[in-house]
Amino acid sequence: MHSILKTVVAMACVIATNPLATAAEFKQGRVIESAEEFSVLSHKARIAPENAMLNERMQTLLPQLMAATDIDMWLVINREYAEDPVYYTLVPQPTFAARRTTMLVFHRNADGTVERLSVNRYPLGEPYESVWSGGDLDQQWQALADLIAERNPQRIGINVSRDWPVADGLTHGLQERLREVLSADLQQRLVSAEELVVRWVETRTPQEVAVYPQVVALARGVIAEAFSNKVITPGVTTTEDVAWFIRDRFAELQLPIWFMPYVTLQRAGNGCTDEQAFCGQAGHTIQRGDVIHTDVGICYLKLCTDTQELAYVLPFGTSEVPQELQDAMARGNLWQDHLTAAFKTGRSGNEVLEQTLLKSTEASLMSSTYTHPLGFYGHAPGPTIGMWDNQGPTPIRGDWPIYANTAYAIEGNVKVPLQMWDGQNVQIMLEQSAFFDGTAVTYLAGRQTQWHVIR
User: Fold this and answer.
1) Which domains, ranges and CATH numbers included, belong to the chain?
2) Which region is the signal sequence (predicted)?
3) S-S: 421 plus which of 78, 268, 333, 406, CB 3.0-4.6 Å?
4) What span, in angstroms and rounded, lies between the C-alpha atoms of 383 and 234?
5) pTM, rounded to two decimals
């Protein structure tokens, strides 16, 4: 699927020796002009597909993961105002909180199927069977204890973890209460469910993969709108104006953001040393000749994106992006290809980083890699592949292996000196959402290989 991935070293030589290598040589480039190209469901209309995706996960994915992680029963217990981070990935919509004390119980049967049970004052409905409702809190805890004793699981997973926040949702008070109602024998069977939680959150199902391109395309479409003359008037518009346009545009589309969008610029004379982590500056009026960068993230249909793209403001009297900048973008795309070529099932995030750095060094790329998983969260659990302030191994999270059917923000940058800027670096900061199927990495809505242009 990616011919470029089979010729990475050869392409590295082409780029290193041919300064005119362009985006045309890179695969999966896609130009999206507006979010208007894509439909957005109303909040009411989102409920059915979100619940269909949840049911698919419950029926097909959860039994596989519980078997793979050797968990016989998984308890997710939380309260209103202190919801477990994984709670909203497990409950049907519309759900806005854990009402009072909410107890979810997943029990793996001998035939491999998983019972989905609730012990709640307020039944949840599908995909859960209510085994208790009503009564007071003491009765609820006793009902949970009786259920556990009746099923007699050998390994009972609870959400406690030192290293993974997403798997550490069982509060101290609830854990104490759980232990109080269990026999000494059952208490000894409690184990951390962190591996199950991380695998559950990081794994994407076929239905999710089907809709994910639309989610990512909407994010890219809003960036395209922002990086246009419909929004930017050179000499007038500020970086903050563009950032707030992006935020307001997502609000108009009823697409929640998971962080405040930001916009920065680079220009000749502002400096961008080899040692600087990031060269973009905010708080300026956009001028002709500027390079503009944005970073945005939305969540839609429970799936989150993380996207960074670049634009160039044409100087007066010009009509094309300078070849030097086109070449710089191509070098950023080459770095992406080094990274995605390093993805291999079972390889750790640290090993992927090591391979990427090796190829980038061979191609004389001044690169930095800080890639992370995507899914129910923008910064999702799974293998960390470098960090902006650490281009070496990351303990624990960097040791996590790459699994098939996982999504990532392919994030990082390269610095390229420009003759047009008297040798000053331009920093090509790119981030595009992608899916790894176990064999190859595919960008969910294409990737930027061409500059956005403000005329």
Assistant:
1) 3-41+205-454 (3.90.230.10), 70-192 (3.40.350.10)
2) 1-23
3) 268
4) 41
5) 0.92
